Amino acid sequence: MSHNQQAETAAAPKVYAATLLALLALTAITVAAAGIHFSSGSVNVVIALSIATIKASLVALVFMHLRHDKPINAIVAISGFLFLALLLAYCVIDIDTRRTIVPYTAKVPEKAAPATPVEADTKK
Amino acid sequence: MSTTAQLVQGHHDPTLQHHFHTKEQQFETSKLGMWLFLATEILLFGGLFVGFALMQQKYPQAFLLAHHHLDRSLGALNTVVLLLSSFTMVMAVWAAQTSRKKLLVWLLLATMACAFIFLGVKYFEYSHKFHEGLLPGKFYSHKGDTVPNQFVFFSFYFMMTGLHGIHILGGIGAIGWLVIRALKGDFDANYYTPVDLIGLYWHLVDLIWIYLFPLLYLIQ
Amino acid sequence: MAAVAHVPAQAHAQTNYLNAQKGVWSWMTTVDHKRIGIMYLSLISTSFFLGGIFALLIRLSLLNPKHMVFGKVIFDAETYNRIFTLHGVVMVFLFIIPSIPAALGNFVLPLMLGAKDVAFPRLNLLSLYIYFVGAVFGIAAMVTGGVDTGWTFYTPYSTTTNSQVTLMTMAAFILGFSSIFTGLNFIATIHKLRAPGMGWFQMPLFCWGIYATAIIQVLATPVLGITLVLLMLERSFQIGIFDPRIGGDPVLFQHFFWFYSHPAVYIMILPGMAIISEIIPTFSQKTIFGYRSIAFSSVAIALVGFLVWGHHMFVSGQSPLASVIFSFLTFLVAIPSGIKIFNWLATMWRGNIKLDAPMLYAISFLLLFSIGGLTGIFLGALSVDIHLTDTYFVVAHFHYVMMGGTVIAFIAGLHYWWPKMTGRMYSEKIARVACALTFIGFNVTFMSQFLLGSRGMPRRYYNYLDQFQPLHAFSTYGSWILGAGLGLTAICLLSSLRKAPDAPRNPWGGRTLEWTTQSPPIEHNFDVDPVLTHGPYDYRKPLPVEVEA
Predict the structure, then answer these.
(1) Which of C4, C192, C211 to mutate to test the interface with B (most CBs of B within 10 A)?
(2) From C416's CA, which of B64, C78, C91, C469 has a CA 20 to 30 Å away?
């Protein structure tokens, strides 16, 4: 055995079985939660993805042995997700702000017509 | 001068490659290599996930309606099957670590069986979609849609589950190779690197499905 | 390490990696990193030659606005589009990305680390074969009609043109895997196979540069892979992600593409910087100034390089907010790059400088890269970029960084390690003349393009106004000088192969481990596994093995 896991090995099957049960339970929860209609659809997305992330962490930590492994392997795995988040974040920043800013500046000259307050005063 | 003679000297273990000093070093290196490969897999699938998220943001209604064509219970069934296969795989690694050679073979076979069940269910789902014309891109021929652009959902559905399915097929091949070597008795507490590494790969395939399932099947 | 001394360094019948095994089959099945490096070197040099021919043809065509050469029109507009695309694709994907890491890095990195091989020798060979398959796809795309989209394959044109986009993106997709496997291998090698006594900060700076490069190769290339798959599927099946006619977002393609392709320019330049960090201390015979800041700046460039890709999209319809963020972050890249330049200069200061060919190239690099880098700041500035986007200014900037930076560094490294790789000393006289020709030719070619661009000459255009003719002609004449310089370099290096091996172990007085073994090295690199007893740039005492005449 090449890493300090000897003591763990005897108890390993129990830990793995417990993890499996937890994963199955979380699957049931995620299916059940999808049946509930929250006020906003994004609540469902957040719940579903949070549960998925918990499940993924369980798989990574227990089944993929990251709990006992050299930290570098975990760093490699996490950086994969981080750079993915970066790709998503920048795309969202661009796409979500693309339309909101441009039409606004284009309409400014019409709305902010000169001397509007003065005219309003004279009408009164 | 003969350099190979010098190198062989002192390395009696046939599982130790010439450019490593110790088995520990060799194992750690292989493992790091595997994790780096898994990181590339995360980013490869990740491109599809990002594309899916942005397209869903663009056509939320189309995606919501389109996903009703998917069978939620079949998706959940496949999730359970894959989780089970992950469990048998990690137990296989444990069996190798503790030199339980027979158990190792059975656990690997169980993992393969789960993989085949997964693909069987997928085949059933796919043929259903083919029948209804719920196909990617220009092949989409489903009639009676009230909202346009539903084909984009099926483009992503087939790309993501397809790429995932290719990885399952690759995993079946790799585990099959492990079975053959395990039958020869190649793996024990002294040397089980391939079992460990292919196990990591298999768990990643499972991990990706853990995200695919809610994203594709459980949209609200 | 003193035990190495009994090996006769200049014995003519010496065994080395080149003659230890014979026959074509022994090369095709080798897992020796040195042989794989040499095979990569010959493949990428061929690609460089091919890409160079395309470049000369582009310049020839632009000699005058009517494209007349000897009274005939040399290319029509469509052929011209294909030729500049092929120049870009060949140079980027087949030459410059694999150039330094896969060819020189493969050869030198394990030697520098004191290792017998890379971490995964068979994967290394696989990466070479994948490169070869990718190249075959690329050539197939060329001979069946070529591609006219530019090397960036921008949608929606790339999803509608009927040139060989699918085949060419397939080639780039396959080449990506070759690059990933090389990077993965190098990261594992650097982490796990350093010689005893070599901590992270006793590692030569070349290894730091290659490490930073490998991080990008591993983390960015998969996204290019999936992007190209999406592009192919969009072309064939209209999946609806990039093509605006069916509801896709063409700017999304640019995001995906530049997520890889901007970090990819750091895949190109970081190994170049890594070579310069070796050559400058050796030819100044002086310890590198600011070892740690150079090491960290490599990693910083790799990481910051991931944050700036949107500066390619200032005029693509990207949101103003995103443009502002990207423009701001772009300036950050200048900091680690500047740190390197100043550290190299400080290393040379009061050093015992020898102006051999590698050092001449290294000094050329400092000049050309500085110009390339500083003009990059102009382009990163949002407002200035709107004027300069898609002009020859961008072309000139890119070539100052990539050709003046990476290619010059590659040639510098090739001269530097040539004695180690082949066992032969090249003719120093010819090499210096070639270096001068290359330097002059390069500046004539591309300095004029800065002027063209700032006056509004758009890039990739077939036609141009008569007023641009003098500068275009000047640039074309420069390309001939540049071609002559590179041709002379090839002659200089290749002609050295005809003579008997004459290279000593350490012709330049380097202090890194590759100079402690014989030239060319034996099959397993070192007679005795090296143990590091001195720093990588410790020029005060001689190497323990320097016992030869």
Answers:
(1) C192
(2) C91
